[in-house]
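P.,

For your records, the input lines for the assembly:
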Amino acid sequence: MAAAATCSTGTRSTGSVVVAASRNSVTSFQRRGPRASGTDSGCSRLVSIAGTRPSVRNGQLLVSTGLPALDQLLGGGLAVGTVLLIEEDKYNIYSPLLFKYFLAEGIVTGHTLLVASAKEDPADILQELPAPLLDDNCKKECDEDIYNHKTESNIKMKIAWRYQLLPKMEARPVSSSRFGHYYDVSKRIPQELIEASKWHGFFLPEKISSTLNLEPCSLSHSYIKLLQFIQNIIYEEGFDGSNPQKKQKNILRIGIQNLGSPLWGDDICWTENCDSNHSLTKFLYMLRGLLRSSLSACIITVPTHLIQNKAIIARVTNLSDTVVGLESFIGSEKETNPLYKDYHGLIHIRQIPQLNNLIYDVSDVKDLAFKLKRKLFTIEVFLRATSDAFLKQKERLHLPPDLSDTVSRSSKQDLAESTKLLGPGCGMTARGKKHLDF
Amino acid sequence: MFPELNNLLNTTPDQTEQGKLTLLCDAKTDGSFLVHHFLSFYLKANCKVCFVALIQSFSHYNIVGQKLGVSLTTARECGQLVFLEGLKSAVDVFFRPQEEPHPLQFLREANSGNLQPLYEFVQEALKPMDSGEAAWRCPVLLVDDLSVLLSLGVGAVAVLDFIHYCRATVCREWKGNVVALVHDSGDAEDEENDILLNGLGHQSHLILRAEGLATGFCKDVHGQLRILWRRPSEPTAQRDRSLTYQYKIQDKNVSFFAKGMSPAVL
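Structure tokens returned:
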């Protein structure tokens, strides 16, 4: 309980409850909302796991990706038993952030972690996780930021009002405070939290040196090792339902970094036709099989831009559940494009799984951009046109909003918009919405 | 089962055609609603169904099946449905090797590509009974989806051979039906997948091709379905006639309409 003690000093009760829940994970910390509404009968017995909530849509148990904006885009969160595949951006700058958010969320909610990497020691990865913004210090920082923007926002209100109608990606932090948390990327996660958490590391160079006497199989050696490791954890710690858990049920969060990169011993990155063409897809299939029968969720980052054979990417996408692609502007001509100057890249939701459903819900908003602020990684609806009259005119003509006319006004608009998004982003829904009234 | 699709295909569960291979194919969209249609259709038609489900878990198909009015659990209990859950079996085969050959034995083998155990499994599952128990109408093999086999390292030719064997046994010998889904890789230039798709298109009697809209995402129209009949016996006017409809997937149904005639547009 050291973690709870240190973190709860000076915080309001809610703040400390989150941390305490991560250690004890008992009923008193549960929100009444989801359980009272009782979405699906199959899930009701699972609801008592901290940091999860049942999906309204398909009754699946969801976990947060650690980025509430992304959760919302993915239909509430990541379903337990599924794989989230992140297509890495070209220089691998922003994808590790999503990876770390996912793991940090696991630590805060008290889930067991399994971190696999061929590049960094999992212990080091954990050290670099972002610090959670619990309610109290979040509020303080919000106030700070809002103060900075206050004068501007009052003036710019008139320009910003129409964006109220746009769907907001950063919403409902109050209601999801138990489910998803916000993180400060400029700070490291408190050491106590890491010490209190339960995690397993798979560092490939450490594991690979051992025996090579496996029977021949078309899977590459490192993938076999990793699968066996995961299966072992799932089985021994009782994450598969068949092996009754003695203690409270918990979620296993699996994170696999740079899967398919040369460090994993996969040669799909430099040859188009090779013998191990099926190694990665086969691994993913097995992993999917393991996840489907256990209380676990998995995030994988894959350097898809390195994979030579495009057919493999298509197959990998088919075998994963949720696929999110990051495209950073660094090094591309978009970096200098005035239209994109307030963002660091685009985020593409490539695939959303159909679970227990005929319909797969696709978000209406396709233009999403991300921005790494000083503390927060934010996802925003990317606005192509910024002038009201101009937009109306375009709508009437059914023309796509053009870029050329908009550049002059975009800066003011985006400023106003960012102030608006900032409020809800830090746990101030009411404020974020209401201060736009005039 | 979607009544509107039955109308388009001129079938009802009471009068099913026999001895046909139906190829389901999807490009730039998800065609699994077609699999759910045929699964519920043949279960309602009182056929003996062998479902090789490689991509999703049993509970997924079961829950969707319930929305479409069939219970896979009861069908499995009373022997109407034989369900091979690929994901679960793969883990079993991989981590808990057994003595007797498993239908998905190829997962363990180094130079995989031998689908014979899978064929034997299908054969065993659909073998006509000696008129002892409840007699099912005709045997049906349903595969979701064949592209996964390619991802698992089976060659396209081996998959084509497997389907050919199944067709010879199920369609011809037992007067049953085979339905299989294959993804169309589109721009990805997946050579093996193209071989498989073209090879199957050549053999099949009916091709249902779900495509995403060329103009991009739309909230009210989820895609278009192309229906291609290949009936050698009919006069040329009827032969190879192709029909295109647009569709919208709803919670428990799929509505089809002529191109450009979406209720949202009119």
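Two observations worth noting. The CA atoms of residues 156 and 196 of chain B lie 5 Å apart. Chain B touches chain A through 47 residues (CB under 8 Å).

Regards
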